[in-house]
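Incident review: delayed structure delivery

Summary: a single-chain prediction request sat in the queue longer than the usual turnaround. Root cause was a stuck worker, restarted by the on-call engineer. No data loss occurred. The affected request and its eventual output are reproduced below so the record is complete for anyone auditing the incident later.

Affected input:
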Amino acid sequence: MSFNLQEINHELSKIFNELWKADENRFEPCKDYEIAVQGKASYVSHGSNNARDCASRPLFSNVNEERLRQTKTYATFIALLDNYEMSTGVAEVVTRDEVKENNRFLDAILETKVMQLTHDYLLSKNLTKADPREFKQHLYSIWFQLYSRGQGRGPDSSGFEHVFVGETKRGREIMGLHNWVQFYLQEKRKNIDYKGFVARRNKNKPDEDDHVLNLQFSWKHMVKPIGSSFIGVSPEFEFALYTICFLLSQDKVSRELVLVDEYHLQIVVYRHGRYIGTSYPVLLSSNNVPLE
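Output delivered after worker restart:
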């Protein structure tokens, strides 16, 4: 695959690389975690829940859980993961304690250099308010405001739930779940079965130290044929990238081609009205090795 440099969003690549360098809470491969990418996943048709297992072992063989517990952004993030009803069409009920947990998480990430740089960048584009309290409320609305995704009664989804927690469509199809911490925790609980890496034909096997993976997995007996996720990055880094892309575009779907560290990525964001519908990275190549 060849890349037309004119298609790459150089401005976004610049700010994303600044955020990458500022991400002090990123976990490092072979130090903070170890993964085993194993075999290349087989083809699974959309809607099918049958997948050949091309990975006999879990994706994550080791994660520094002590660092997860001791790092405020991870600890407050993990506290949110059990607060949601996984099936769309079933209305969510947000308790007062859950609102407090959401706010504690936002307070934690807003203390980081990553989100400070993000606020500065968005201010330079007149896309948010200068007052930190209003910026926090803006983030809360984008990510945590409930809306109706299914055909049930009442609001049943949010951007945060879809992207970071994962949800299902009528109990038959996995939607979202693009976060490595949630993947690891669900895998540890035996809810997720990693099936193998996904790549175009003739692609070399991903490196164990890649920070972005396309993968296939089952979650509570449903199969996601192709998922994609950053690996090891902090919650604030993902919040920053997706928030910036969401606010820069009013399109229903935005797809920005960027260069971040050694990765050629497409950052995809779907808009659900004033809120994030979904967002995820698509790995196009790493170390200048194309995926086809």
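Verification: Residues 10-196+207-285 form one domain.
Action items: add queue-age alerting; document worker restart procedure.
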